[in-house]
Amino acid sequence: MGKYFIMLCLAVVLATGCSPNDPQQTVDPVEKKNPFPAIVEPHNGEQAEKSGDVVFLHREMRNREKWESFMQNVKQNQPDNVRVTMYTIEGDPIIHELSYDGTLFRSTYDATRDKYGSREEITTNTCKGLELTKVERGESLYVLTDCEKQNVFYIPSMQEEEKNSEL
Question: Quick check: 129 pLDDT over 60?
Fold first, then answer.
């Protein structure tokens, strides 16, 4: 009987000695919820529009109300998110996810689906502002300003939005 008791004690010691003591290892980390819906492939214009993206295809803006709502929330320093999908001449999507926390913009740029481009990795950036800037031929673009890294985010302005020149 003593032999069984010693073996039982030894088994308990071995079992507890092999389990992690660090509570961080036993608790699942809290994952940040992605505010954007999953990207459904192929991410063509129709699919992007259904997913709620602001879509630029053939110089046309779809889901304009999403961009206008985002810009209105930015003016009021209210947090918001918007995904902008633009298409290359060949029809490949370039995806920009823009999150505003009431103070800063966080931009995620994904050109990995651009078959004829650089196919760069997904890059992120943090910026302090979003400005309407005039470019060639009188056109205007929204660009992020005061960024930690070189900015790659831009979105063509549509005539109705040019009233608001800087945020």
Answer: yes
* pTM confidence score: 0.71
| Preceding amide of 42 cis, omega within 30 | yes
- CA dist., res. 65 & res. 82, Å (int): 11
Instruction: Copy the structure tokens of residue 52.
Output: 């709620």
- 11-49: pLDDT as tens digits: 444 444 444 444 444 444 445 677 888 888 888 889 999
| CA atoms of 25 and 33, how far apart (whole Å) | 21
Give dist(CA 155, CA 85) in Å, integer.
10
Q: What was the pLDDT predicted at 138?
A: 77
| Maximum alpha-carbon separation in the chain | 94
Whole-number Å distance between alpha carbons of 19 and 12:
11
Question: Residue holding tokens 């309407």?
Answer: 132
Q: In angstroms, rounded to a whole number, what is the distance separating the alpha carbons of residues 111 and 154?
A: 13
Angle, CA 107 vertex, CA 103 and CA 113 arms, to 5°:
165
